[in-house]
Structures are given as structure tokens and as C-alpha cells.
Amino acid sequence: MPAAVAGDADGLPARRGRGSAEPAPQADPGTAQSWDGAFWLDPQPRFLHDLCPGRGRGRGGGGAGRSGGGAPRRAGRSGGAPRHIHPFAQRLHPPARGLTARANASQQPGERARERRTGMSINDVSPAKGQRGQARMQAICDSCMQEEVFPCARGDFAEARRKLGLRGWAEVGGTLRCPTCEARRRAHAVVPVTVATEAPPKPTREQKRQIMELLGESYDTTAGRYRKGDTDAVVAEVLGFPQRPGWVAQIREEFFGADGGNDEIASLSAQIAALQAAETKLEKALAELCQEREALHRDAATMAASLASIRAAVGPQALRRAQKGAA
Ligand SMILES: [Zn+2]
């Protein structure tokens, strides 16, 4: 078969040339595969397999490899061909229902693990068709694997989600959680508020120099206080940062004096002290006068009593008694 060998060598399909020498593809025992007595035709044309570089190499040896083409080639079905499941395997692993079935339909390698993580945890566990019993759904918590089976229409996952919501379940970010785990998630979801504590502003070198200059004018270091009515706040206000009297106080305490008072404050304090002393003195005098008044009052009462007794002794009645006695 020189035509077939030449066709394989340059990687081009050589089927047509060989067709006359070999039986038709349908009759080839390699194309029709038997499994459990069932027959089907390989859905992929064989010349597409021959385009596969791996196959081309395997058969490049010569005409002897050609005869191997007649053997069954199951690997040929791994391309885009539909999967055929052995009935026995189907009994062992029944096809999943509902979301799992949908997920399996477009499953890529490694997708199952992700699928499990993203919480497709609602399954239709209704009794099989023809069997008696209520249609039910099963929910599995993605956190603690707790299960809950509840009545729900067959295959209605929207309804199942609604019912789960009423039961306290929640699906957040593709993760289904039972009421307990959802409560725990919410408790942990409270993000602690981080207060940005920025350092308090500090005076610039220029501002410090200005404070020093003004303090030199307004602070009396010998008296240890501001002259006249100046204060830290006044200095800060004059220098243009009225909200920062603390800057002035810091520099004043470091280089001038601890007392933030001034002459006016000292003068007023002295006046207040003098007035308080006078008040105390007057209060003392008042107390003495009160005592004196009470003593006078007592003396007056005593004198009034003795006057009454004298009058009784020298009054008109006593005179009359004396006149009677004389007569
Ligand atoms: Zn849970």
C-alpha cells in the first residue's frame, strides 16, 4: 500500500486513496465498538484521528502499522465525543440531580473541588419518580456540614433558597451557612474601627523662634509671670495660631517660667485677697458687736425687773399704806 504510507508520512489524510484497498469505515471493526452488547459508531471520522501528531508518529514505521489501524481505539473518543457511561457504572454512581448535575455538566478538571467550596450545597433529595413521598430538598452548611431536609418542590432551587432564608440560612459569597454559622459570621464581620491617631502638630522652627521672641518681650522672668495682661493664648493669637496655645506654654515652661499668669492676674489676685481679709475682719467685729448687744439686752432686762420692784416699793399703794399706819 504505497499510497497509504506516503499519505501518513506527510501528515495528510490518505483515506481516500486507501479506501479502495480496505473495507469501508462502517465495516471496520475498529470504528464500531461493542460495549454491553450496544453498538455505536465512532462519532469522529477516522481521518481526523490520523491528523493527530501522536498518531502519525506511532504509525510512521511503515506498512505494518497500517494493520494496527484496524484494532479498537478507545482513546480516539477522548476528543469532543460525548461520554458514554457504562450502565453498571451508572448504577453505582447515579447521576447527580439539581445543582450538582448542572455543575457536572460543564465540569472541567479541578472544578469539583471549587464547586464544593463555593457552596452548591442544596440538593434535591426527593424520592425517585414513581415512588411515594414528599418532594424534598437538602441543604448542607458549608461551614459545619450540618444538614437540613425540608419539603420543597422538585428541582425548584429558587424556592429552596427562599425557604432556607426563612429558616435562618444564608448564602453569602456563594457559601451556604446554617443559622448558627451565619450568626457567627455576622458577629465576626463587625470590623473593628481603627482610629487613625495622627501625631499632634508641632510648631515649625520659624514658629518656635517667633514664640521665643514674643515671650522675651512679654514675659517677666524676674517676677516669673507675663507682663500686664498677656497669656499663652494671647501670644498664640498674636502669632497667628490661636488654636495652639500649647505650643507657647511648652516653650514658656522650658525657657522662661512655670507660671503662666501675668501682672493683671497677680494684681487682681492681691485685691481679691485684701477684700477677703477685710470681709473676715468685719465678720469678726460683727460677731463681737452681736455679743455686746446681747449682753446689753440682758442687762436692760435685769434693770427693768429691779425698777419694777422699786416702784412697787415706793408706789402710791405703799404711800397709802404708810399714811394708814400713821393715822
Ligand atoms: Zn453551620
Task: Give structural notes.
- The chain has 327 residues and is mainly α.
- The protein is built from 15 helices and 9 strands.
- Helix 11 (205-218) crosses helix 13 and helix 12 (232-239) crosses helix 13 (245-255).
- Residues 1-82 and 94-119 have low confidence and may be disordered.
- It binds zinc ion.
- The site of zinc ion has 8 residues, from helix 10.
Our estimate of the beta-strand percent is: 5-15%
Total strand segments: 9
What is the string of SSEs from the N terminus onward?
A: HHEEHHHHHHEEEHEEHHEEHHHH
Mean pLDDT: 73
Biggest sheet features: 3 strands, antiparallel
Strand order of the largest sheet: 3-4-5
Cα gyration radius (Å): 58 Å
- Which regions have little confidence, pLDDT < 50, spanning 5+ residues? 1-82, 94-119
| Helix/strand/pairing category | mainly alpha
Shape: elongated
Bound heterogens, unique: zinc ion
What percent of the residues sit in helical stretches (DSSP H or I)? 40-55%
Distance between the termini: 201 Å
Number of helices: 15
Concise account of the structure shown:
Residues 59-71 have a biased composition (Gly residues). With 327 residues, the chain is mainly α. The protein has 15 helices and nine strands.
Based on the model shown, name its key terms:
327 residues, two-stranded antiparallel sheet, 15 helices, disordered N terminus, binds zinc ion
Topology:
Layout: H1 2-9, H2 15-19, E1 32-35, E2 38-41, H3 46-51, H4 53-58, H5 63-68, H6 87-92, H7 98-105, H8 111-117, E3 122-124, E4 136-140, E5 147-151, H9 157-166, E6 170-172, E7 175-177, H10 179-189, H11 205-218, E8 219-220, E9 225-226, H12 232-239, H13 245-255, H14 263-314, H15 316-326
Antiparallel strand pairs: 1-2, 3-4, 4-5, 6-7, 8-9
Residues 141, 143-144, 146, 177-178, 180-181 line the site of zinc ion (ZN).
Keywords: Coiled coil
Coiled coil: 265-299
Region (Disordered): 1-131
